[in-house]
Amino acid sequence: MASSPMASSTQSPRPNLVFRQLRGPRSPGEFAAAVRRAAREIGERVSCDARYVGRVEAGEIRCPNYAYERVFLHMFPGRTLTDMGFTPRSQVRGRGARDSIGAPLPHTTIQPEPTIQFYESHPTGSDPRACDPYAIQIHEESDVERRAFMTGSTATVAAALGPIGLSLGGQAWAAGPRGRRADAADACAVEEAVRRIRLLDDRHGADGLYRRAAAPLRAAYTLLDASTTRQSTSDRLHAGAGELAISVGWLAHDSGRFDDARSHYAEALATARMSGDHGVEAHAFCNSAFLARDAGRPREAVRAAQAATGAARHLGSHRLLSLVALREAGGWAGLGDRAGCEQSLTRAHALFDRGATERDPEWMSFYGPAELEGLEAQCWSALGDWERAARHARLAAVTASSQTPQFTRNIALYTAELADDLARAGRPDEAATAGLRVLSLLGEVQSSRIQSMLATTARVLLPHRRASGVSGFLERHASLPRVG
């Protein structure tokens, strides 16, 4: 495969003249105030100031994070991010956070043949879908591929992932990793593997992905044993391998393979510690806290969340600290400590309200108002306050449907949480209605977590089968194919 020259890591950013035109006669400070007002109109919080506007116009921010994206799309209806002069997210996802912290990453859009190959044609920068990775994904997937995700068999999942090519590319690495040095193209390939796995999980859930995702993870750790030409490449490989281990760990976690998830998170944490990467360390501890809570180890969840807080303080991201506080709240709720849970929830909300910044890790794109409400709902549910849990779960589902419809899995998750909370709160008819909405989404989403929640809700509703709508939900739920 012919390679194109890579852009130098020291080249000057290209000014975003289109965005400068959108600002018009307003000063950077006036425009920043308009951005903050627009954010409040849609229930978002961003800490936009004149400096941020200047960085966008100078081209230093190639593509905004998801919070700013929602605000800009609200301010300029009918325009896409590419229409505003931004670089397609498909070229920057997974690298933005490290760029903002100052790691010397080369900005590469076309690489030599990578170690992990992705056989896929990306839209060009002129395509209005190019800045939306979810639009890219929907465009690429046929109905046959979407159905293939739901069977769970190796052959059909491989067919669904075929266009992505999540596999070890190049027999040289399998024969012996010391055959050549790892380079920036290999680092890009690992980062691309992380990006594609996250996008597919957001849309489809974890069950159909987990086994296939092990291949790029093995490839990434093979690369860590190879020599590199630059320290910056080594740092990227370590960060990419750590993030990939976390992503695969999450797929194991969400599909009910808790022991596998624990192992992958530990692997990511070890990688982060070896390379001194606080970002990967915070992410690994954050996910470990979530896993510990789900596995019935709430005290471990609290300790892991507190460790994540210690690592996250180095990163300057209020949103990350907010999410970690929610993980700690979940641990306290599991222990039945209402006061500890409320204190952590208060801290989570206060940090969230400080707004998004360019220093928020890219993997946190899912963490917006809907996720905040959804995680709080889980805390009140663990404490047995079903009515309060249902209020937050309903708000999470409504917010997600209106603001982030691409996160199909999360919409299904919040609605499943709502159904269970309503059932336990003694409102079976409303619970059945919510449960039916989840069932309608299971044509796209495969998640053992969600199916387990629905099964629990069905058991709670069984004594109320004569209530309005309940029998219909129970019949549809009983007809679901059981995933082995």
From TrEMBL:
Which SUPFAM superfamilies does the entry link to? TPR-like (SSF48452)
Report the coiled-coil segments.
Answer: none
Protein name in UniProt: Tetratricopeptide repeat protein
Q: What is the lineage of its organism?
A: Bacteria, Bacillati, Actinomycetota, Actinomycetes, Kitasatosporales
| Organism the protein comes from | Streptomyces kanamyceticus
Q: Where is this region: Disordered?
A: 1-24, 91-110
**Superkingdom of this entry's organism?**
Bacteria
Question: Known InterPro entries for this protein?
Answer: TPR-like_helical_dom_sf (IPR011990)
List compositional bias (Polar residues) regions by residue number: 1-14
